[in-house]
Amino acid sequence: MIAGGFGAGKTTAVGAVSEITPLSTEEYLTEASTDVDSLAGIEAKTTTTVAFDFGRLSLPDAPTPLELFLFGTPGQDRFVDLWYDLSRGAVGAIVLVDTRRLESSFTPVGFFEDIHLPFVVAVNQFDGAYRYHPEQVRTALELPTSVPVVTCDARDPNHVAGVLLTLVDHAVNNAAISRDGHAPYTTLQDA
Ligand SMILES: Nc1nc2c(ncn2[C@@H]2O[C@H](COP(=O)(O)OP(=O)(O)OP(=O)(O)O)[C@@H](O)[C@H]2O)c(=O)[nH]1
Ligand SMILES: [Mg+2]
């Protein structure tokens, strides 16, 4: 799963790295969301994801060759029911973070902690945004040392692939049982 707050760069990340034309469910932002979905720092944004993004990435050079199916979530908290559906059977999650709007990261971080799905935090370094050290972001989000925190540019395929490899490595090394009792990465272990 590629998760994170509204406008953190999830659709951008899936589109950057997918080797198929991504399925996207973008709809135009309207005046109705002006007061609830802040565009501070992302004023050029005109659409938002209303269901999910889907893409695919093969990693033939990974220690075990992998084919990852990428599901980008909608960012707003009001879509949390959909996050539950998308997380079923997932290997793990990337939480993309925009440090200018850090508060929108708490809900996705708490969500993956609650369902015990391995996740990594990737700070999406927007142009002009202050460059915080990953350890400062860890402290601000109250993350344990076991959760990897990395930086990336969500527009760069190599960066996003690198974060996915970090996630796969983290998921393999952190066996966890999801809240519904299924091992979330059975497929990965089988591979
Ligand atoms: N400068 C810069 N802009 C980015 C980066 N990633 C995304 N953007 C821009 O930021 C805006 C938001 O990107 P999206 O990919 O739509 O974000 P999202 O997280 O999918 O948004 P929602 O689905 O609405 O929650 C777009 O205008 C992107 O072009 C980045 O790494 N650097
Ligand atoms: Mg999106």
Automatic annotation (TrEMBL):
Source organism, top-level taxon: Bacteria
Instruction: Return the InterPro entries for the record.
Output: Gliding_Motility_GTPase (IPR052705), Gpn (IPR004130), P-loop_NTPase (IPR027417)
Origin species: Streptomyces doudnae
Among Pfam families, the record links this protein to:
ATP_bind_1
Q: Which family does it belong to?
A: Belongs to the GPN-loop GTPase family.
The record's section on PANTHER family has: ATP/GTP-BINDING PROTEIN-RELATED (PTHR42708), GLIDING MOTILITY PROTEIN MGLA (PTHR42708:SF1)
Its name, as the record gives it, is ATP/GTP-binding protein
Q: Molecular function (GO) terms listed?
A: GTP binding; hydrolase activity
User: Which keywords does this chain's UniProt record carry?
Assistant: GTP-binding, Hydrolase, Nucleotide-binding
